[in-house]
Every structure is written in structure tokens, then in C-alpha cells.
Amino acid sequence: YMVPAILGILVTMTMVLVTSMGIVRERERGNLEQLMVTPIKPMELMIGKILPYIGLGYLQITVALLIGVIVFGVPIRGSLIQLYLLTLFFITASLGLGILISNVAKTQMQAMQMAFFVMLPSILLSGFMFPREAMPKLIYYISNLIPLTYYLVIIRGIVLKGIGFQYLYGQVISLLVFSIVLLIASAKKFKKKIA
User: Fold this and answer.
1) Between 18 and 35, residue with greater pLDDT
2) How far apart are CA 115 and CA 191, in angstroms?
3) What is the pTM of this model?
């Protein structure tokens, strides 16, 4: 029960932490100035920032699944293709959150602190440590604002129960909405000027 959930936590940690420092690092080093003289649009820049990390996220998931199966003996009862496809929505939502943080933060230290501020509620409120059904109603509704909440249902459902997309479309739609909203907010927040 915990091994698939740990995979979700790992992806969240690395995707949010790594991307949250992306634009901030470029701004501090002066690389952002070079990007500003190009005719690139903010949304194109955001997508360009996320694409390499999607590959990294899939590499992470593959390694973690292999360790889960080989070391911990976790059976994968559902479709791996479906798991990888639905994981894309979670990776993009996590990356969108990281990019948004990097657009808000002024320094790498501030970006790291904001990323950790996002991580703690993700771990405590998503259903990773405590069942969401046992949470007070207010906390339960707040946990709906965390992408990991939806991904834990997806990964536990596919890996442990072997359920299909027909039971997971609500989670997928939620993650898709997260991805779109976070990427649009990131593109709007990014200003083509030197801060």
C-alpha cells in the first residue's frame, strides 16, 4: 500500500523542487536575458522548461517500479501502459506547480522554501500518511487542492487493484485541470523583462 504512494511522493518532490529553481537560477545567472531577446512566447518557454523533466519523471517512475517489484515484491495488477499514460497528467501538474513557484520566487533559496511549503501538505493531506476519509471535512476539502491526492488514487488503483480508466477518469480530469491552470498561471506570471 505504501510503496506505490512513495513513488508519487518522490515524483512530487523532484519535479516541484527541480523546476521551482529553474527560472530563478537562470534569472540569477543572467541566462534569462538571452531568452528575452528571442521571439519566444511565455507559454513556449514554460513548455520548453517542462519537456526534459517529463522524461526525468518517467525515468524515476520506471526505476521506482522496478525497485518496488524486485525488492519489495509489489505485484502490478493493472496495465503499465495505462499507468504511464495517466502519470503524464500528474507529472505535468507537478511541473506546472514548480514553474509557478519559480516565477514567484526571487532567489533559489526562496524557491526551495516555497517548494518545501508545498511538499508538507502534499505528504500530510493527500492520503499518503492518513486516510482522507478520517480527516475533518474542512481538511478533506483542502486536500482536493493537492495534485498528489488524485495521483495516489490512480497509482494505488492500477498497481494494487488493477482497475481501469473507467474508474479513474475523475482523477485524470482533475489532474488535467491542475496542469492547464498552473501552466497558464505560470505563463501569465512570467514577464519578459529583467527582474
Assistant:
1) 18
2) 21
3) 0.88
